[in-house]
Design a protein that fits this description.
This protein is of the alpha+beta class and 233 residues long. Helices cover 40% and strands 16% of the residues. The protein is built from eight helices and six strands. A six-stranded mixed beta sheet has the order 1-2-3-4-5-6. A hairpin with an 8-residue loop joins strand 5 and strand 6. It is globular. This is Protein kinase domain-containing protein.
Length: 233
């Protein structure tokens, strides 16, 4: 029985993350496949930003983690705009966002529950950089149930969701809950200068994408039990 984010961490480690790491390792060991998928190294899943390389090399190496050769970096202006918009939407006021601009620049190390670390090999086999590839947020299934997600996950404008009204329906509450969860993951994605991440409850995955224009977050809902069925064979 899964009753906490820690339980999800252990479950996902044994059922998903270790297998993904093994698959990427096998792909990277094959020269043809390594070139086909433009792999620069292996991947590993960590839960603390201190395992990453220092911030400056991390920002430089982020240019190399995409499978696409034409991917553009998110500009500092769009990054700052997205962070300010997130803070403003979460608080319902422009004052915290204005105050945030005068604070020292935050570290871009991920602060999410879990993140995928991409090991980029250097010129020598003994040197490599460790950068974040995407972030993961765990939510216990009793806090974010499948029913809540079905009712609350939809195309939405945060300006119409974040404010509480006396006339709010249960669906309005579910939408606000789902929006809060996505906003938290979105904030970590933007802060780390990444493009992808996902939310996991152990029975539901909500995959997120933040494009060059971060004013819209794209999502894809995946329910493995429904997508695959009771068996895979």
């Amino acid at each position: 029985m899964i009753s906490s984010e820690l339980d999800i961490n252990l479950f996902e480690r044994s059922t998903v993350e270790d297998h993904v790491s093994l698959i990427i390792s096998r792909l990277y060991s094959n020269r043809t496949l390594r070139r086909k998928f433009n792999l620069k190294g292996s991947v590993k899943f960590e839960n603390h930003g201190n395992t990453l390389s220092p911030d400056t090399p991390m920002e430089e190496d982020m240019q190399h983690i995409s499978l696409s050769r034409d991917r553009r970096r998110r500009s500092p202006r769009l990054l700052a705009q997205a962070v300010r918009s997130t803070l403003q939407a979460s608080s319902g006021s422009a004052e915290p966002a204005a105050a945030a601009t005068s604070r020292p620049t935050r570290s871009r190390r991920p602060r999410a529950d879990q993140f995928c670390v991409y090991n980029i090999l250097g010129n020598a086999e003994s040197t490599h950089s460790r950068v974040a590839a995407f972030i993961i947020e765990y939510k216990a299934p009793h806090k974010l149930t499948l029913g809540y997600i079905y009712e609350g996950l939809d195309n939405m404008d945060l300006n119409n969701v974040v404010y509480c009204r006396d006339t709010d329906s249960p669906r309005d509450f579910f939408r606000r809950l789902v929006a809060a969860v996505i906003t938290q993951a979105f904030f970590y994605i933007v802060l780390a200068g990444l493009e992808h991440g996902y939310i996991c409850t152990s029975e539901v995955f909500i995959f997120l994408k933040v494009p060059e224009d971060p004013t819209t977050v794209y999502y894809f809902l995946s329910i493995p039990k429904g997508d695959v069925g009771e068996t895979t064979g």
